[in-house]
Amino acid sequence: MADTAAQPFHIEPSPGGVGAFVHGIDLASDLSSNTVGVLRQALGDHCVLFFRDQKLTPDEHIAAAEAFGEINVNRFFARLLTHDKIALVVKEPGQKTNIGGNWHTDHSYDQIPAMGSMLLARETPTRGGDTLFANMYAAFDSLSEGLKETLCGLRAVHSSRHVFGADSAYVKGVNGRIGNPELATQDAVHPVIIRHPISGRQALYVNAGFTLHFEGWTEKESKPLLDMLYAHAARPEHTYRFQWAPGSIAFWDNRASWHYAVNDYHGARREMHRITLEGEALGA
Ligand code: SIN
């Protein structure tokens, strides 16, 4: 059990519906096993942790991520030339399509989805380029008891094909930044309502990016209910909009949150370094 009384940093819930800010910590030097335990629990509780002014080298970024688990090198993202454990999330001034510009949670197309990602801002536009986060515990908790009961009996099929496969308009739009379309072969089935591995709470686990349909239902049959759930989960009271500056980090848990990179900074450059961590199979 982590000793929270002795911690030199403090955790402040965001003013929105998801996430918490961690103040008074240097991720390059302060990650004792006790601190990692406290932060892991906080991640499970708050869904996303935000850090400011982290002056991490790429090696320190990797070390900070590895303190929380094994790194999952995403097979589609371009990587930092010098550090292939770091995925590059870049939009150049001449590019129009950004990476992650819709509500999604990463890797739900894997049968063992990644736990989360530690995204570090290297270069940010002077205005715009925020990321929205949404709370999937709140999305579940605020449904009616009747719909909760129905959803608890369902599983959903997720896929990477339509997003990262060769025919995807998105892959064409992010030309060169996303690759390996031949590896977009995964389909996975997960409970629609999962039991979160850290917090033990129930969370909604479908997302507009990767979920195709409910198991045993057609896409046409699934769409109205999925659309209703997507609109419900993205309600403002479930969300928080994070403003980046170089050195900011968002460390999110894919099982408890969605994210959405806002694409409102055409003509400016934004460079983020993402490290993704392995997760575990999800149960109801
Ligand atoms: C992502 O979806 O991983 C990118 C998020 C961001 O760039 O804000």
Written description of the protein model:
The protein is an alpha+beta fold and 284 residues long. The protein has one domain (10-277): Clavaminate synthase-like (Double-stranded beta-helix, 4-Layer Sandwich), CATH 3.60.130. The chain has 7 helices and 17 strands. The strands form 4 sheets. Strands 1, 2, 3, 4, 5, 6, 7, 15 and 17 form a 9-stranded mixed sheet that branches. The longest helix has 15 residues, at 219-233. The protein is globular, with a radius of gyration of 18 Å. The two termini are 25 Å apart. 41% of the residues are buried. The model has no long low-confidence stretch (mean pLDDT 94). The site of succinic acid has 9 residues, from strand 16 and strand 17. Succinic acid is lined by residues 89, 99-100, 119, 131, 259, 261, 272, 274.
The main β sheet shows up as: 9 strands, mixed
Tell me, rounded to a whole number, the average pLDDT: 94
Using only CA atoms, what is the Rg? 18 Å
Strand tally is 17
Envelope shape? globular
Total number of distinct structural domains? 1
Helix-strand pattern, N to C?
EEHEHEEEEEHHEHHEEEEHEEEE
How far apart the termini lie comes to: 25 Å
Bound molecules: succinic acid
What share of residues is helical? 10-25%
Q: What is the name of the CATH superfamily?
A: Clavaminate synthase-like
Q: Look at the helices and sheets and give the structural class.
A: alpha+beta
Given this structure, which CATH class is correct? Alpha Beta
